[in-house]
Amino acid sequence: MNIDNIKKQFPIFNNKVQNNDLVYLDSANSSQKPQVVVDRIYDFYTKEFSNVGRSVHYLAVAATNLYENTRVLVQKYINAQDSNEIVFTKGATEAINLVANTFGQKFLSEGDEILLTELEHHSNYVPWHYLRRSKGVKIKFAEFNSDGEVTLESIEKNITPKTKMIAITHLSNVTGAILPIKEITKLAHSKNIPVLVDGCQGAPHLKLDMQDIGCDFYAISCHKMYGPTGLGILYAKKKWLEVLPPYQGGGGMIREVKKEGITFGDLPNKYEAGTMATAQVIAFGESIKFLNKIGIENIEKHERELTKYGEEILRKNNSVKLIGNPKEKGSVLSFTLDGVHAHDIATILDEDGVAIRAGHHCCQILHDKLGLSATARASLGVYNTKDDIDKLNESLNKCKKIFEG
Amino acid sequence: MDLKELYQEIILDHGKNPRNIKKSDNFNKDAKGHNPLCGDKVHIFLKVDENNKISDIAFEGSGCAISMASASIMTDLMKEKKEIEVNELVKDFLEMIKKNPELKSKILGESEKTKLMSLSGVKKYPMRVKCATMAWHTLTAAMKNSNEKDKFKN
């Protein structure tokens, strides 16, 4: 796997950012896009555009086929049993909202419990929070340990006869902990509890096999997977999509509409109301092909090595404190720097072309528990190199110098 | 060069050792400011006397060097100022930090103006302007004794 060749496929790296070579360490926030994905959007709009699933003219049929091809590519990529288990949404946030809303409507009542973890991104907490008000459900949080991990035991301890859903992250966007989602699913299923996995950080970095993991729902953010913004995927087992009510109403999701009543369309159309993000779906097919060409196993190996290198380098820097030390860790390096607030770090690094994220990373529960208002986070993608980590470290030393005078 | 303008000695000093950072029961007005995007927080406490003059001012909070330095310098400058002067200074500062090259108000002396102008480097960093303005918006809310401005904006 030749990183130089891979990096060349991303046009953003051909241009200087504020007169600097870009050191992009914010892929957990959103990844950069390879040329093939950008071109696919352009080509679709310039040569092939039509709405999908409605008209019978040539362009409409061709566009529908392209759109459905991506569904099959995604199905194979995550090894889902059926392509009808792949629902396109406007993002992972909408995917989780879809489940919280429809599952809540149909299956939850007062006193029922939803089990989350303290690692969750706001998008896997806020949608469930609404059910507190509308249904009177309780939300519990499985604790993370001093290494920033949530263990199977921590989940087990929090399950009660009232637990009706377990919704957990695959990979923490702050500590980098990879959760044992297969074991958690097995445990949950032994107690008849469905499992939703927030796969925003898992999907771009780890090999996915839905049939092996066994989870009921898995939410994916396409823009973190070298794909376009405005697109997410909900994987849901067919048995759920068949029994849950539709999420939004509109065109494309119905079978028959009469003054007296309405019947809904087949899967997955039942969950895809209105005109979808057609160009983005079609372009996302190219993201999957791009990932397949390199091989997710190779990406995983490259990123693990780089994460390890990053941990080594940052540990050697006495002023840096890494957040979390999980045994199974994804490509996220969150840290604090003695005497320098995360926002000041981010501004100073930016002058050197080093793009990181600073703040609570949409994880206030986690930051509150750590007693921190903000942390700095460098996150990796397929295009990053050891050189990027070295530049990060150099810039961190510059921060220290500025603040220590 | 821009970084040196942003992180001037005086900013680093006030950022590291903020003045007037304390909590006291001896206040009659207060307001909280919060930037939900980054988690920065400030709580301004005022003692306003019967002539509408700030006889004491303090703050509590956490945030970046810019936000802490801004709150620290602001609280230094606002002591013994009347409400009408406070309003003029807040307006002047907010206009300077967004567009005006200089402070226009005649209320402050030259050395005080220099101190306040040390925050002007923020102009070149649009994403950081909110760090510098949070305390000032919160002061306005505190004068009105309201937390309405909790939803802090630029």
What secondary-structure arrangement, pairings included, does this model have?
The complex is a heterodimer of chains A (405) and B (154).
Chain A lengths: L2 H6 L14 E2 L10 H14 L9 H20 L8 E4 L2 H16 L5 E5 L8 H10 L2 E5 L9 H7 L4 E7 L11 H10 L4 E4 L11 H4 L3 E5 L10 E5 L1 H6 L10 E4 L4 E3 L13 H17 L1 H21 L3 E3 L9 E6 L4 H10 L2 E2 L1 E3 L4 H7 L4 E5 L6 H19 L1
Chain B lengths: L1 H5 L2 H8 L12 E6 L6 E8 L5 E9 L2 H14 L4 H16 L11 H8 L11 H15 L11
In short:
The complex is a heterodimer of chains A (405) and B (154). Chain A has 14 helices and 15 strands. Chain A has 405 residues and is an alpha/beta fold.
Structure description:
The complex is a heterodimer of chains A (about 400) and B (about 150). With about 400 residues, chain A is of the alpha/beta class. In chain A, about 40% of the residues lie in helices and about 15% in strands. Chain A has helices at about 5-10, 35-50, 60-75, 90-105, 125-135, 150-160, 180-190, 210-215, 240-245, 280-295, 295-315, 340-350, 365-370, 385-405; strands at about 25, 85-90, 115, 140, 165-170, 195-200, 215-220, 230-235, 255, 260-265, 320, 330-335, 355, 355-360, 375-380. Chain A starts with a helix and ends with a helix. Chain B is an alpha+beta fold. Chain B has six helices and three strands, in the order ααβββαααα. At the A-B interface, helix 12 of A face helix 1 and helix 2 of B.
Give structural attributes.
heterodimer, A: 405 residues, alpha/beta, Aspartate Aminotransferase, domain 2, 7-stranded mixed beta sheet, 4-stranded antiparallel beta sheet, globular, B: 154 residues, alpha+beta, Sufe protein. Chain: A, 3-stranded antiparallel beta sheet, 15% strand, disordered C terminus
